What does this fold into?
Amino acid sequence: MKKGVSISAIAFAVLFFACGLSACGGNGGSSGNGGDGGSGEIHTHTAGDYTWDEDLHRQTCTECGETLEEADHVYDGSNTCTVCGYTIVPTEGLEYEQVDEKEVFANGTVEYVPADGYAVTGIGTAGEEAKIVIPAYHDGKPVIQIDDNAFIECNFTEVHIPSTVESILSFTMCNSLTELRIPDSVTWIWHFYGNAALKSVTFGKNSHLIYLGKATFGGCPELVSVNLPDSFRYSEDDLFEKSKILTDKSFWTDGILYIGNHVISADPSLSGVLTIRAGTLSIINSAFWPPCENITEVILPEGLRSINGYAFDTCSALKRVVIPASLEYLGYGAFERCDSLETIEYGGTTEQWKALLSYEPMTRFISDGCNCIVSCTDGTIDMEGNVTKK
Ligand SMILES: [Zn+2]
Ligand SMILES: [Zn+2]
It folds into this structure.
């Protein structure tokens, strides 16, 4: 599917990239000096011609072969990439509708902002095409959305989504599709439910993905490869329901399914003290469902940004949770029915904790059947929200 071709770089300034010692394997270093035959000789990278495929372009060093730049195409109004010159040849017959507002996710909630572009709303007369290429621009305006029900029970084996698309609402029962690349521009996806042959979903290195809806990749039994990007923060539940990645325990580590730096699921047989892996950025909605009823403590790592709703629902033996000050989002019901919860050790101040809860009652986040005290750096907060300063 990747038919890379080389094009002349004449249209572009020839770029030279200064090379740090570590990048080129100077000092006898072992990494990144492929073209030097391992000699460790220091050189200044020389940018070669751009090569491209239908999703992205890249530029490599003519000396050592190292990739100097790899990025999604950046299209102008005539569907030509302003960086590498690649031009989209869109599939004829797709259906479009103009959109004048779009949804943006901020702090776990949706906001509607004005937009001026198109959504792909249906496959139209392209239903028999094996390959679908969506244009970046249609009638002079960017294609920013793939609409709900745009692609249902389609026969295509390959689809290319341009780097103008920001949201994908559905891609359902397209049973010949085996792999898909999501451009960096996509910030949220509603669902891909029930794509029987889908094996891999790839997000770009600079993905802006923030939100995944309910069962986004559910019912994709062959799905074994997804690289959820670090930008991802918010989710609904059952993201990988009935997919191989969820059911095959070879993808799991110490009873936890991590995908990228995100906790997706946990084995209900886990017990005792659970330390979540360093570098983890988010815990998805209902990650610990079915409940881990024998976990007594959870230690969450510094740098964690989001705990989505109902993440620890019914972890009924859970007594103590350590939450770092880095946390930016706590979803409703995160500790619902955790009736044994006694202590949350929070790395921030009492004021930071209240802000984290958007000044809402503790019982929206923590079981009202427990008598939990949140221990902060400058005092404590009880379930009624009373602060006792140190
Ligand atoms: Zn080089
Ligand atoms: Zn390009």
